[in-house]
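Take one record.
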Amino acid sequence: MKRILQISMVLCVLLAFAGSVWSYSVTVGSDIIDVGGLDALIASDNPGSGDATALAWVQTETGVFDLVMDEKYEDGAMSWLPTNTGGVYAIHLNHPTYFLVKTGNGSSTGNDHFLFNNLASLDWGVVNLVDLGLTSTNIGKISHVGEFNGTSVPEPLTVVLLGLGLVGLGGARRFQK
């Protein structure tokens, strides 16, 4: 009995120090969908307009220079959903590593490009409008969302290692005979 009490106390202490995990949800019809937590804001700036300019800015900010823009959702194709917390919205995405939220006029920060690392749930982009300098009522000020992923070009060293492995397998088979 004393051992059980000691284990229970240790678990209570560990739970007291554990950080809380906050998850947001959206309601679609009668379904409540967990969209994960807020995605990490990496950078915000006003680098200029155009897809090529945005891509160059994203590559510079992330340090990943093989990124490409996979998708771009503009006004009619965006479907922002309010979460269970005021000012926090979610948008369904196609598993990007990074996503860019471009606002129109109305950001109080002066910036209009906001780059996020899509960590919480790759299916959803979750942002807090107040962090973007917008109010919870002007979701319409978001111009578009861009999704960015790295290209899948194999590195030369990886191909060399694969070749050496195949040569090694062939040599081992030859010596077995």
User: Anything to note?
Assistant: The mean pLDDT is 82. The CA atoms of residues 48 and 54 lie 7 Å apart.
